[in-house]
Write a structure and sequence with these properties.
six-stranded mixed beta sheet, four-stranded parallel beta sheet, alpha/beta, globular, 327 residues
């Protein structure tokens, strides 16, 4: 238990720009790729000042093998009688509605949730997210790494069942309370990012086969690595505002997109662009809907002076990309 939590009265005045409520979320999944599925989900609802209001937990039948059982402990037999995601989607949405989604490495949890709702032809009612890793950086917490267990240890929160969605959500909720109040006391701007529901989504053309080996280690994937052919055109340099894109330009993406990232990247490649996985001084253009975020690509783009464009503008330019041979 936490003994030294600041009281509400000790934080005055509370920043008026802060959200009015939070949904601390954790999902366990069959793996880490775009074609993986949620197998359990937990939500702790918190009020505007981080106090727990209630919590909810459910198993989810992924309609496929459960992935790394040795990590999450959920076997095929355990999940066989669980509801399908469309059957819990309304309740899940009610827990998220009108709240900021809070998660540890929030981009992962949000991306998995967004894909599940897209598969169900539904939209999650989430408009903003807050990553507790980003918040810990804003607060300058002296953590040895960015693992949940390190954040929990810093605030004296005891983990009971790591990689169990309900316990991980509880741990994060208890660690978020002092983090939020420390931020409020210092009037720190919360690192909120927009959540863009997927408006265009496609299932993978080659689903993972049952029994496929899991490549773990934190960056593992059930999906075979996807290698695109090398771009056949030379890099013509940086994009110049007001001009068309040109074949060979190196384009990087960062943050949420309304069109699923792989579809957007495929269209860029089909137009003759080079999709870059990282950003360097050679990058022609960064496409992001969150130009004020603190992702490494956005930070580097500002350092290098790389042009930045949002998804909608990029989509328009993709319709008429100049040939590499054009002068």
């Amino acid at each position: 238990m936490l003994e030294d939590r600041p009281t509400v009265s000790s934080v005055a005045p509370w920043p008026t720009a802060y959200p009015k409520g939070y949904a601390v979320v954790d999902v366990e999944t069959t793996g880490l790729s775009r074609d993986d599925r949620i197998i359990s989900a937990a939500v702790y609802r918190l009020d505007a000042q981080g106090v727990v209001e209630d919590h909810w937990y459910t198993l989810v039948n992924p309609e496929r093998d459960p992935g790394p059982v040795w990590i999450h402990g959920l076997t095929t037999d355990v999940l066989a009688g669980a509801p399908l995601f469309p059957e819990i989607a309304a309740e899940f949405a009610a827990r998220l509605d009108d709240r900021v989604l809070v998660a540890h490495n929030a981009v992962f949890d949000w991306s998995m949730i967004a894909r599940e709702y897209a598969r169900a032809r539904l939209t999650a009612p989430v408009r903003q997210r807050l990553c507790t890793i980003a918040l810990s950086k804003e607060l300058g917490l002296p953590l040895p790494n960015h693992k949940l267990e390190s954040l929990a240890a810093h605030f004296g929160v005891v983990q009971e069942r790591a990689h169990h969605a309900l316990d991980d959500a509880r741990v994060l909720a208890e660690a978020f309370l002092p983090s939020l109040r420390a931020a409020a006391a210092k009037n720190v701007r919360l690192p909120l990012l927009e959540c863009r529901p997927l408006t265009e989504f496609s299932e993978p053309s080659v689903p993972r086969q049952p029994g496929a080996a899991y490549r773990g280690g934190g960056a593992g994937s059930w999906r075979p690595s996807r290698k695109r052919p090398a771009c056949p055109y030379p890099n013509p340099g940086r994009y110049e505002p007001g001009k068309p894109l040109k074949q060979g330009m190196r384009v990087a993406f960062s943050g949420d997109t309304s069109v699923e990232r792989e579809l957007l990247e495929d269209r860029a490649v089909e137009a003759g662009l080079h999709v870059a996985t990282s950003l360097s001084r050679l990058t022609s253009l960064l496409v992001t809907n969150d130009p004020d975020s603190y992702t490494s690509k956005v930070v580097k783009a500002k350092q290098f002076g790389t042009p930045v464009m949002d998804e909608a503008a990029f989509g328009q330019l993709l319709q008429d990309v100049a040939d590499a041979t054009d002068g």
